[in-house]
Each structure stands twice: as C-alpha cells, then as structure tokens.
Amino acid sequence: MAPAGGAAETVVVDRRGQIPWLAVSPEQKPIASRSAAELRTQRNAVVELLRVAPVADEVARRFEDAGHELYLVGGSVRDALLGRLGTDLDFTTDARPEQVVELLTGWADAIWDTGIEFGTVGATRRGSTLEITTFRADSYDRVTRNPEVVFGDHIDDDLLRRDFTVNAMAVRLPERRFVDPHDGMTALLERRLDTPATPEESFADDPLRMLRAARFVAQLGFRPAQRVVAAMREMADQLDRITAERVQAELSKLLRGPHARQGVELMVDTGLADRVLPEVPAMRLEIDEHHQHKDVYQHSLVVLDQAIELEANDPDQDGPDLVLRMAALLHDIGKPATRKFEAGGGVSFHHHEVVGAKMTRRRLRELRYSKEFVTQVSQLVYLHLRFHGYGTGQWTDSAVRRYVTDAGDLLPRLHKLVRADCTTRNRRKAAALQRSYDELEERIVRIAAEEDLQRVRPDLDGNEIMRLLGLPPGPLVGRAWSHLKELRLERGPLSRDEAEAELREWARSEGLEPPPAP
C-alpha cells in the first residue's frame, strides 16, 4: 500500500466479485502476498458493494454521462470493509451542488437540499438514502465553529480534510476503483485511529473530531494512535467552541456503542469529559487509608458494562437503550457531594440519589437533551437506591405498589439498572441480592396480575368526586383524588361503597359537609 501522502492505491472490484489489483507503483504487494485478514476485509467490501450496486451504479452512470466523477466515500467505505454497510450511502463528486440537484432530478424518489450551502444534497432511491457532497477544500479561522466552505476539484484534497484515515478511503464509481492515499486500509486492519493531516491541524479545524475519536472507540473498538491521544489532551479545552447540540449528538452515539465504557474512559483520560460530563471524572474520589470504599468511578463503569450486557440478554430489547446507559453512567454522581467519613472507618453517601438526580437534570439540560429524556434519566437516578430497603422481603404489598407506581413506564429499565448496580466481588452477597430482586419481580408480577398495577388510579374519578361532594372543579377535587390514590396504594383496590365512605370521611376531616348519600 502507498504510504500516507503517497500515490493512491487502486483496486477494481468486478461484477463477479473478483478483486484484480492494479499495481500503480513497484512497491505495492501482489494479491498473493496479502494477509488473510486483508483479503477477508476486502471480501467484506465486495459483498457489501455488490449488495448496493444497483443504486450506486445507476447514480454513478448519470454522473459519468454528464462528465463528472462520483466516489463512495468515508464511513460508507469503512463500513463496507467491516461488513456492516447499511442503506445510508455517502458520496463525493466534483459536480457543484446545483449540478448534483439537476442530475438527481427525475431519478431520485425524493431530493432535499437543507445542506446545500455546505455542498451536500440528499436523496432517496428504492429504500437507500444518498448524501452527495461536492469535493471540499475548506479553510477554518479556528475561532468560530464553522468552516469557510470552499469547493475542491480533486478527490485527494477532499480526503485530506477528513477526520480519520479509516474515513479517508473512497471507491470511484462505476468502475469501482479503490482510492486510499492515507493508508486507511492498514489502519482499519489494525483497528487504529489516526488522522490524514497532523492531529493538531485536524482538531484545530474541528474540535468535535476529538469527541468523535472517543465515539469511534465506543462504536468500533478502535484504538487511537498515541499522537491522537496526546493532541486530545493538549487541545481538550477547544471543545468549548462547539455547540451543545453537536456535543450531545456525539455523546449519544458514543453511549450507544458496544464499547461505550472504553469511549468514556478515553474522554476521562484526555480531559474531554471535564468539558462534557465533568461529574463523571469527579467520581474518581481519593481513597483515605482509614476510610475504605469502592472507587465510585470504576464502579460506575462496571455498572455501565453490566447494563449493556443485560440489554444484550433481553430478547425484547430493540437496540441500545440510551436512557438506561446514561442512567447507569450517572447514577452515582451525587456521591462526591455527599461523602461523609464516619467514626470507626465507615463512609456514608446519604441522599446521594436525590443530589445525583438534581445534578443529572442540570447537566442533561445544558447538553440540550429533550425534556422527556432528562426526566427519564433523572428519575432512574433518583430511584436506583430504592430497592436496597427491600432487604430479604420486608416490604409490604403497599411498598411494592409504590415502587411500581413511582417507576411507571421506567420499571423495566429500573429492573436492569438495579441489577447492573450489583458490583460486589463477594459471590455470596451478589447471589443474595439477585435472589432478593428475583423475589421482588415475582411479587410485582403477582400483584400486577391481581390489581392491574400499570393503571393505578383512585377508585373514584374526578367527576364522581365532584358529584358525591357537591364540589365545583378546583384544587379541593385534586386533593381528594390524591387522598384516594394514596389509599389505593396503601390498601389495594377498594369496593365502590368503601371508596365513597372514605371520600366522605376525608371531606369531613377537611371541614366539608358532603351531601347525604343517595
């Protein structure tokens, strides 16, 4: 393969899936001397490219007939080589955006130009989504977030400005010529992240690329080159130039990755987490030799790992659960603020779940997450410790009802979070905790079957309360409703006569004189 900055390596993939190598320099290896891993990776690309060939070839022919170049590029080529190419395809071309729109009109099922000022035109065709971007040769002032968009004329210039060498490969269509001027294939085989230009240049152009490096570690299990890690440490503060919305998008992708823990560790080790989730590195508490306790940071990483494992073992789970994973990572962030050294060598973290829920809500709002997401994650953080009052089954049925009602739709996630939160190395203690939670889940199922816990409501609704007490709509009706709900949680379902009697008794305690019973 050509060294970084050298002549691009070219490979033609023919219609039968064969890969004859076209030597462009005497240094290139013939196919017979290539490693099994290399050939396997290339075969992945053949299979993937042949799968999307009809759509890719059709659009390429339109560009070729108009005298323009078209390349499958970036993440699409990387994913094809890894055998995981989806239906979202990225292309680059020498055609200008207006020409791209013209070439797609009449062929694409739909076209959108929301990114046209940055040179990108989107389209769909028979279930595939295409993004076609004009060659870029951008310049950055390295103060603001956005580049001065400059269109280029050569594929090599476009590939040089990309974030990582594994994303700086292209396949020219329709002839399927592989272009790899920065040796991205070797980096891919070594699962190594490096930059086409120097990391300092790349990250100065777009600091979000540092967070993207952590995201690729989490998604693909790659390892960043030492020079990349060094630049991330040196330039972490540059991430402050990036909008919260862009940071949030990368963080969410990172946490959805199968190797999310490694991505978080890279963020913490390089100082990126101090700019994005400072509460996470703050969990690395100094351990006092006389007051031993778990390393809260390491414990939280294990909980994240175990939550991901529980997801994988759940047949009803449909993809990564960002709410659960964020809660697993943040569930103990209230501990540093609540740590107290006790006499005799103990350490307490009283009410850390309450403090942690407030901290979680504040941080996720700053990252511009949706109101629903913020509420769900912070509620899981608030509830994660509740189970530890269960002991060996001392809860009454009333306490079980409250547990279910407080969790609401989050109950399946709370089950996973509580189980993931068991990280003790004492096998006997771990087994006892799991047995206790098994018993609690069995009780929840039993009581739910008897009482329909998913729809806990007072035995009388608001209209009935107003009719029985002769009240107009207002706060008193709400207070009466809340009282009946508390009774429902405490005692289970009431008969109609019992509910009405309890309502009248409540009204008298409030100084009201309800109308006579009919």
TrEMBL record:
Superkingdom assignment: Bacteria
Listed name of the protein: Poly(A) polymerase
Basic and acidic residues bias (residue ranges): 494-511
Occurrences of domain HD/PDEase (ranges): 292-435
Coiled-coil residue spans: 423-450
UniProt keywords, alphabetically: Coiled coil, Magnesium, Metal-binding, Nucleotide-binding, Nucleotidyltransferase, Transferase, tRNA processing
rRNA processing among keywords: no
One Pfam family it belongs to: HD
Keyword hit for tRNA processing: yes
Top-level taxonomy: Bacteria, Bacillati, Actinomycetota, Actinomycetes, Pseudonocardiales
Organism: Actinoalloteichus caeruleus DSM 43889
Cofactors required: Mg(2+)
Region of interest called Disordered, as start-end residue ranges on this chain: 494-518
